Amino acid sequence: MLIGEKFPFALIGHKNTVSPNNEVLFNNADAVSRLVDRFFKKGHRKLGFFGGYKDQQHTVERFEGFRKTCEFLGLPVNDEWIKFGDFTMDSGSRFYHEIMRLTEHPTAVICGNDFIAAGVLKAASPEREKPLIEVTGFDDSVVAPLFNPPITTVRIPAMEMGKSAAEALLDMLNRNEFIFESRILECEIIGYDIGVNSQAKT
C-alpha cells in the first residue's frame, strides 16, 4: 500500500513481502553460521538447533544458516536434534529433556534466543555431575549475563539499523523518491568462550 501510494518508508528488521526493497535487515544466517563454525573449531561434531516459531522469519533464517553451515562442514543435521517451539525458557527446558532421553544427543546446541538457552541451562542445572551440552543464545538480552559463565550470544545492530533507516528516509525525501535498495547489517558475537560446561565428545 505504501509503495502504491509512493510514500517513503523503511522496514527495520523485517522483510518487505511486496518487493525486495526498503528494508534494513540484520544477517541472521551469517551470525548462526559463525556460531556453528566456532563450535566446530572447539571439536564439536554433533550440533542441534533449538528454535522459536518454525515459520517466523528470523527462525527460518537462523535455521538456514545452521543447516547450510553444517552441510558445508560435513556435520550431520539430525532431525531429532532440531526443535521448534516458542522463544521462552519453558521451550528450552522442554527441548533439553527431550534430547537427553535420546540414545545419542548433540554435544552443542544453537538456540534461537537467550531465553531458550537459559531454559536449557536451567533444566540441566540439577545434573551438573553429568556432562552437559554447550549452548549459545541470540539477541544479547538481559538473561545472557546472569549465568556463570554468561551465555555466548549475538548482538543485533539495533542502533545502527535505526540510523541506517533514518538516513535512507532522508535520502529518499531529498531525491523525491520512495524506494531504496535494501541493506543488511552484520551482527556481533558476544563471546564468553562459547558455551557453558562440557567438552565436545565426538
Task: Write a concise synopsis of the structure shown.
With 202 residues, the protein is of the alpha/beta class. Helix content is 36%, strand content 15%. It contains 5 helices and 9 strands.
Overall residue-averaged pLDDT value = 88
Class inferred from helices and paired strands:
alpha/beta
Radius of gyration: 19 Å
Order of helices and strands: EEHEHEHEHEEHEE
- Please provide the count of β strands: 9
Straight-line distance between termini: 53 Å
In the CATH hierarchy, what is the class of the domain at 28-155? Alpha Beta
Within CATH, the superfamily of the domain at 28-155 carries the name Response regulator
The number of helical elements comes to: 5
Counting copies of identical and different chains, the oligomeric state is single chain
Q: Strand order within the widest sheet? A: 4-3-5-6
Largest sheet: 4 strands, parallel
Question: β content, as a range?
Answer: 5-15%
